[in-house]
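Annex B. Sample input.
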Amino acid sequence: MCSLGEQLKLRDKVLSYYKRYLDDTLTVMKDEVSAYSFLHVLNDLHPSISFTMELPTENTLSFLGMVLRKDSQNITTSVYVRPTNTGLLLHYDSHVDNRYKKSLIYTMLDRIFKLSSNWSLFHEGCIRLKTLFLHLAYPEHLIHSMISNFITSKQTPAPPRESTPDLQSVRVVLPFKEQKSAESVRKQLQKDLGNLLNIDLCPVFISRKVGEDPKHKEIDGGVDQLTFSRLQI
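Annex B, continued. Sample output.
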């Protein structure tokens, strides 16, 4: 797809609005004639690739899990629900820790929030979400609490980040033995000793390679010879 995009540039056929995610592309055309003309250009780029096109129906078009609606000169977006969607998600009576059930509600809320272009559409998405999770036996008070906390978190401005003074970074080279020990040493250096000295300690672990420690080997005649081997991948 990237190669085809380069071919469009070489032919000077790139549109003013051309957004692509993998093999799904969203474009803006002035009319259907222009749309079919551009489709013909795409299908001429490679003999083994055939593009299809979907036009809006009643000023509505689905694209990548969301619905785009044209209202006058504005375009709104909301979550797209496939007609074949059965609402099969994690049931509340499943033998799964409650934190995963809460995370599922939060993930769905976050998806609705990011795909909804205004609060009204977000409210509609929350109503559908409530119906879905009630069908999955989730307690109503839990759903209301999650929605309320989510909205509060989005409406409350985030506290300003405290500026921290620049710390001097010091690189510490240490021998690597195994991962567990390395993580333990890293935490001790960065959190304990680093905070105590007010220094940003950056441990770097290295492992000795075969052949770095040649050994003496006695050979005939009493002469010592350095012998070592090297492994190369």
